[in-house]
Write a structure and sequence with these properties.
Elements (H helix, E strand, L loop, with lengths): L1 H13 L4 H7 E10 L10 E7 L5 E8 L7 E8 L4 E9 L2 E11 L6 E10 L4 E8 L2 E8 L2 E6 L2 E8 L5 E5 L5 E6 L2 E6 L2 E8 L7 E5 L4 E5 L3 E6 L4 E6 L4 E3 L2 E6 L4 E6 L3 E2 L6 E2 L1 E7 L2 E7 L3 H4 L4 E6 L2 E2 L7 E4 L4 E5 L4 E8 L4 E3 L3 E2 L6 H15 L1 E6 L5 E5 L4 E7 L1
Parallel strand pairs: 1-7
Antiparallel strand pairs: 1-4, 2-3, 2-5, 5-6, 6-7, 8-9, 8-15, 9-10, 10-11, 11-12, 12-13, 13-14, 14-15, 16-17, 16-26, 17-18, 18-19, 20-21, 21-22, 22-25, 23-24, 25-26, 27-28, 27-29, 27-36, 29-30, 30-31, 31-32, 31-33, 34-35, 35-36
Length: about 400
């Protein structure tokens, strides 16, 4: 009888979600695709929208032909609830991408998400495209015939190669005011002779994912082909071929029955119980009959990406036509704006916290209130020794003698 009940329960759990339960476990992302150019879409144009989560997993997608319809093109994508990620959209003509939008973030939750108008950027198929991360902002440079094209901030800028002592230097814009100078894996972006961003070649998306915990000291490394488990402070080691990731509302899982293990990653903020360092996921490792708990994902992934707008410094709200901002790149560099001048420097993220190196800044004079704000921003950055992220997704930089909140920012 017990076996029969177990079999019936397993069958019920394996059934697809229906009715009210399915609605509770899913959410919908809606919006409308638009673009600036006054170009009509041909009847054979088609659209693809995808919502992607951790491990580049497709959480949901929608594909349809335009059949003579023009922008705005409404869309809806259904995906599991309680997972964060980003949306990407493409309009293709003749099988080739012509307009794209990338990295439109959405947070975890169960409520529907309305993105409103999603503005796509016209793209030209290029050869030998190289992608860079410029202070958290994506930049691409590629070849089109005998010319180079720089893609930046939704623009395609025609560039010409100029003389340089080393690397490859490109100039473009109305009066060649835009300069992009590559040297190996690094590059510098300047406008009118003023550096606006340090760049590094975009990181390989296949970098291993790690999760781990304390007492009894365990960690898991999820590679491109293998998963390795180390537990009991190194006394126990196991490995298995990487299985397909299983997506459920609020979590991702890797099931490894051949080594009696299952790793589950919940899409919610986790703090290391020894250091307090924030991580993007709560991790649970089932190893035979044991349940080991910890955190998963890189703390740096909470910092890098889109630039953060600084909203408060020392408890005071920031002001100015150009709001103060800060961006972190994957090469350990930061850059931003105080509301008056641009600043740049480096950061170091360890298991114990976050420290920022000495800042350099431009020297433009501004109204007195902005100069005061600039001094407060730079003084706050000098005192940072850790960071946190609130439940609403705000970045908090913490430090000083008493470990107080120095600066808060949002996206």
């Amino acid at each position: 009888m017990t076996r029969l009940l177990t079999a019936l329960l397993s069958a019920c759990l394996a059934m697809p979600l229906t009715g009210a339960m399915a609605q509770d476990q899913t959410r919908e992302i809606t919006g409308a695709l638009v673009y600036r150019e006054r170009i009509a879409l041909p009847p054979d144009a088609d659209v693809m929208i995808a919502a992607r989560g951790a491990f580049d997993t497709v959480l949901g997608e929608a594909r349809f032909g335009t059949e003579g319809r023009q922008v705005p093109l409404p869309f809806a994508v259904e995906l599991p609830a309680d997972l964060s990620g980003h949306v990407e959209a493409t309009i293709r003509v003749g099988g080739q991408p012509r307009w794209i939008a990338r990295d439109i973030p959405f947070s975890a939750g169960g409520a529907p998400v309305d993105l409103g108008e999603v503005r796509l950027t016209q793209v030209t198929p290029l050869d030998f495209v190289t992608r860079f991360d410029c202070n958290g902002e994506p930049v691409e440079i590629g070849i089109l015939g005998e010319r180079a094209i720089l893609r930046w901030q939704g623009r395609e800028i025609e560039m010409e190669q100029a003389r340089s002592a080393s690397g490859a230097r490109y100039l473009g814009g109305d009066e060649n005011e835009i300069e992009f100078w590559t040297q190996g894996d690094e590059a510098m972006l300047s406008i009118g002779g003023e550096k606006v961003a340090n760049c590094i070649m975009a990181a390989d998306d296949t970098a291993p994912y790690t999760a781990g915990g304390n007492e009894p000291g365990w960690h898991v490394t999820v590679g491109a082909q293998q998963i390795e488990i180390v537990a009991d402070y190194g006394d126990l080691t196991r490995d298995a071929p990487r299985p397909d990731v299983q997506v459920t509302p609020g979590a991702y899982a890797f099931d490894m029955p051949e080594i009696a293990a299952r790793l589950t990653l919940h899409d919610r903020l986790c703090h290391d119980d020894a250091t307090g360092m924030p991580h993007p996921h709560e991790a649970t490792l089932m190893l035979e009959d044991r349940e080991l708990r910890g955190c998963g994902g890189s703390p740096a992934s909470l910092l890098t990406g889109a630039e953060w707008t600084i909203t408060q410094v020392g408890g005071r709200e920031t002001t100015g036509d150009t709001m103060p901002a800060i961006g972190f790149d994957e090469a350990g560099r930061i850059a931003g704006h105080t509301g008056c001048n641009r600043f740049f420097g480096g950061y170091n993220l360890t298991g114990e916290g976050l420290t920022l190196g000495q800042m350099g800044a431009t020297m433009m004079a501004c109204p007195d209130d902005l100069m005061v704000q600039e001094r407060r921003v730079l003084e706050a950055l000098e005192q940072v020794h850790r960071f946190d992220v609130t439940g609403e997704g705000a970045l908090q930089l913490i430090g000083g003698p008493e470990g107080t909140l120095l600066l808060q920012a949002s996206r």
